Amino acid sequence: MKDVYLFSGFLGSGKTSMLTDVIRQLKEKGLKPAVIMNEFGQLNFDSQSVEEDIPLKEMLEGCICCSGSEKTEAQIQTLLANEQFDVLLIETTGAAHPVEALDAVYSPLFAEQLNIKGIVTVADSKLWLDRDKLSPQVKSLFLEQIRHAHLLLANKIDLLTESEQAKVVFEIQNVNSNAFILQTTNGRVPLHLLEKLHSTVTNNKNDIHSAKIGVHLHLTSRLVEFQKSFTQDQFEEWIRTLPSTVYRMKGYVPIEGMKNPMLFQYAYGLVQWLPEYIRMQPKIVMIGENLDQIQIFGQDSQ
Ligand SMILES: Nc1nc2c(ncn2[C@@H]2O[C@H](COP(=O)(O)OP(=O)(O)OP(=O)(O)O)[C@@H](O)[C@H]2O)c(=O)[nH]1
User: Which residue intervals define the domain CobW/HypB/UreG nucleotide-binding in the entry (predicted)?
Assistant: First the structure.
């Protein structure tokens, strides 16, 4: 049997960071992972963080739950038929309900081959403190992702004071008293904590159907292409003008004086820039609500 872990957590909470670190630990232990990644948006940005020797299936513009559990089923079948691996890691989009995503991996086709260990949810601790600023649907999804986890990571703890850290753990534990909570930075979770999970989910299949929230979020994604370069300051100034309903941005931005577009990440007001050694297309994907009304920096209004 191959162990299967589902990585859940809202947009930008640290799932890909956790995934790359878990892959590293599995490899160190001599285990071979396979990965299924689901991106909400048109850029396969995160898959670039998975090394080439790892079997990878991606689903773009997907939400593992709504765009079809059949697709996930097909991806798992292809992996099982064509690849040698020991552990399957599935990163859901930040817009997926974890239990619906879990439902998608249950199939009589491979029930004998997969040992579904559980849902690991990465919660952005800073977002937790600001959760009342989220729209009701998004807040509800954020809570559901926490509520249904078998293991919880209170991530980005480096951005909080000690008293805030204690408050987050206490409050999150109140939402889900069954899961073990680990305070993390960059989603670093020791492998033995994942391995300790007891495949509890297989016993609760009936709960899974009743737990569906049935609310569909009005999240959209928008692909933005840049024709000219900016300074980092100009770009960040534009970001500060964006409404709080822009939850996530990632991609490559052309910056004056830099040979290649820079790797750019944004989650809840926090910006991260990294130089990129390969010439990537100057494009970012934005994820949020009411994105069509946003004026893109450097582009004339239409
Ligand atoms: N300060 C801080 N930043 C973090 C931490 N973990 C992740 N980040 C940053 O947060 C951003 C999003 O991290 P990802 O790992 O890509 O998050 P994700 O959940 O995979 O994002 P989506 O796939 O868009 O849902 C990146 O810029 C990370 O470098 C952390 O513990 N502390």
Answer: 4-181
Dihedrals φ, ψ of 119, to 5°? Answer: -100, 125
| pLDDT digits 0-9 by tens, 66-78 | 445 667 778 888 8
220-225 and 246-253 strand pairing: unpaired
Give the span between the Cα atoms of 139 and 69, in whole angstroms: 24
Cα separation, 48 vs 280, whole angstroms: 11
Ligand 1 atom at shortest distance from the alpha carbon of 122:
19
Tell me the ipTM for this assembly.
Answer: 0.98
Calculate how far, in angstroms, residue 5's C-alpha sits from the geometric centre of ligand 1. Answer: 19
| 123 close to 154: Cβ distance less than 8 angstroms | yes
Q: Which two tokens stand for residue 276?
A: 């990129």
Rounded to the nearest angstrom, the gap between the alpha carbon of residue 126 and the centroid of all alpha carbons in its chain is 16
What domains can be seen in the chain, in order of their start residue?
2-210 (3.40.50.300), 220-293 (3.30.1220.10)
How many Å lie between the centroid of ligand 1 and the Cα of residue 14? 4
Quick check: helix, strand or coil at residue 98? helix
pLDDT tens track for 156-201: 999 999 999 999 999 999 999 989 999 999 999 999 999 998 765 5
**Position in ligand 1 atom list of the atom nearest CA 250:** 24
